[in-house]
Design a protein that fits this description.
Blueprint lengths: L38 H8 L1 H31 L6 H24 L9 H29 L14 H24 L1 H41 L9 H35 L14 H27 L1 H26 L3 H29 L1
């Protein structure tokens, strides 16, 4: 019997499963600029709320853009050279703001279908924010000129044109660098998101402080008129005009505060930039929807208030000139009424001296008679 060796079949090496790529957190990879919800499940959960947010709010932005275009065309046709340069700058910034927001919401809201390259879309989206905040800041100069408000140099220097232009340029640079850094460097981009959001909040607080200081000055004028300094029926119209200006300013202050609080809530509550737990790679749908909806509505409120206020800039300036002239004239009149002329004062002093002499002579005569 031949010796032969049965060669046992070599066991096939077990095929090791290929490592699956880990789910990438939105906002941490290249090409994504901020965390987003899980779009397929989120849009189903929102149902009609998604169309209401995108097309409903997008339509309001479109109407706002058309109004800005109409006003700018009317200004060019009528050649209103008396319009201050700051007012024209605010109108242009508001036009760019409304146009970018409406285009982004109508074409591909928040780039949820990746219709645009992510870097291009987020550049278009984020540039609208410094446009609104810059117009908000520049309008302070417009209102300062219209109301003839001149704060002291030591207390307030932020209203100076050079300082304000520097703030605007810095804000645009930060807004543009944010998505660029997100696109190419994830870790640096995350840090820069915190810096950019904090900068939004800081500038919003500064602008609110400027308007608050202006409102305090206007409130003083209104209180003088209301509390009896100028109680004439002919001044009711001026008081009503001043009250409208105050309402505009207070509405802008409240909107600026709400917008700053929303930015803070977005950083900490929605995007959770300080969170260390990366297990949940998507944002909770409804918190994101509420945050974005409220933020868009507040932006529109600020835009419409600025739009109306800038268009009434000349009327505000004329009314404030009339109010301040009447206040100054009434103040001088009241001072004249309460001021005693010098000749009357000298006569009164002479009479008092004559009376004292007569009284002293009478006392001396009485003493002699007594003796």
């Amino acid at each position: 019997m031949d010796n032969y060796s049965l060669s046992e079949p070599e066991p096939n090496p077990e095929e090791e499963p290929e490592p699956q790529p880990e789910a990438e957190k939105p906002g941490s990879g290249a090409g994504v600029s901020e965390p987003v919800p899980n779009w397929p499940s989120a849009t189903q959960e929102w149902s009609f709320g998604w169309e209401l947010h995108t097309y409903g709010i997008g339509s309001i932005y479109a109407v706002f853009t058309i109004l800005c275009i109409a006003v700018l065309i009317r200004s060019c046709v009528r050649k209103t050279h008396l319009v201050p340069p700051y007012a024209t700058c605010v109108r242009i910034l508001l036009l760019v703001f409304g146009l970018l927001r409406s285009v982004c919401l109508f074409t591909d809201a928040y780039n949820h279908t990746s219709f645009f390259p992510s870097l291009v879309y987020y550049l278009l989206w984020i540039i609208a924010e410094p446009c609104l905040l810059s117009s908000f800041s520049i309008y302070f100069l417009v209102l300062q000129e219209a109301t003839q408000f001149r704060p002291s140099r030591k207390k307030f220097r932020v209203q100076q044109p050079r300082v304000l232009i520097g703030i605007v340029i810095t804000h645009f640079v930060i807004a543009i660098l944010s998505p660029v850094l997100f696109h190419f460097t994830a870790s640096v981009g995350h840090v820069f998101q915190i810096i950019c959001g904090s900068y939004y909040i800081l500038i919003g607080i500064c602008v609110v402080a400027c308007f608050s200081y202006l409102a305090q000055n206007l409130q003083g004028h209104y209180n003088r008129m209301r509390n009896g300094f100028l109680l004439k029926t002919s001044l009711k119209e001026d008081m009503t005009a001043l009250l409208k200006i105050l309402l505009h300013v207070y509405l802008l202050i409240a909107s600026g505060i709400v917008l700053s609080v929303l930015h803070l809530y977005g950083l900490l509550g929605v995007y959770k930039v300080l969170a260390t737990d990366d297990t949940n790679i998507y944002i909770e749908p409804w918190s994101w929807w509420i945050y974005q909806t409220v933020a868009r509505l507040v932006e529109l409120l600020i835009g419409f208030v600025l739009f109306q206020a800038v268009n009434n800039n000349r009327k505000i300036k004329k009314k404030m000139q009339t109010i301040k002239s009447r206040l100054d004239s009434s103040t001088s009149t009241i001072k004249q009424k309460h001021t005693v002329p010098d000749d009357v004062t000298s006569l009164n002093q002479a009479d008092d001296g004559h009376i004292k002499e007569q009284q002293s002579e009478k006392i001396v005569s009485d003493d002699k008679n007594f003796v």
